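User: Fold this; tokens only.

Assistant: Input:
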Amino acid sequence: MAQVQLTMILNCLRIILMKSRSLTLATVLAGGVLLSSCAAFSASDTEGVQVAAAFYPLEYAAARVGGGGITVDNLTRPGQEPHDLALSVRQTALLTAADLVIVEKGFQPQVDDSVEVNAGGRVLDVTGVADLLPFEEHDHEEEGHDDHEHGGVDPHFWQDPLRLAAVGDAIARDLGEVDPAGAATYDANATALRHDLETLDRDYTGGLASCERDTVVVSHDAFGYLRKYGLHLEPITGLTPGAEPTPGDVQRLQQLITDEGITTVFSETLASSAASVSLAKDLGIVTNALDPLEGLASEDDDDDYLTIMRANLAALQKANGC
């Protein structure tokens, strides 16, 4: 066992040194950081197909499609905001050793850079199969609300279950290329995932079909794909989670909430609720949370994509009088 682990550590170091332009052997030996990160991998960690997913929805889809035949590592830890993620040495080692890396190019620029330099296996960029939509323009005054921050397209595709189903199909195809012996299993698992996601899509369509209101005030622009269900989304701070709204933004939203009889201002997990709470308090209405599903809240979170999406649906129905 010790010989096997030593071989794995040496292979890990070799791969990282080969793939990274910024590291030298002197760095490894002097700091000892990469060595300890590689040593954290056990023999069981390298058995079977290894997948590195950039953030939670991609991890969820990969785990459902791969089933027990693969190991999936999420590069974004639970509770961590994914947009500005910078990979640690250990996360870089996971990426380097993975047979398949799943990313959404443009959503996490620092991850994109690391993938380009360090990825040792097959890379699946889901932007094409998810068929990303352009951001809807909003009347925001604050600098930094530029749609071009994400290339002019909305990266939050997983709010549409059918787009996540398409990503699941693509993962099955790529896993089948990496592991031809498991291809039939991956295809079957992707079909089962698609069935669950199509059911969820129907529940959203039916559940939001007859509501007293269709306007939803949210903290930032992470829910645009819900417009397919007839909702009109009004973000407080545009694209940037936790940003401060301008006085003009607040005044416009106050008037909108009053005119349309909106009952709830939504905050979200993994970001500050200050702007949402302040807006709701000024108007004497309530706040509630919508989860943008960019990541789970904690390591021991028992919820998953399906249960969180259904909780979001229930919150929207309550707020909009459905």
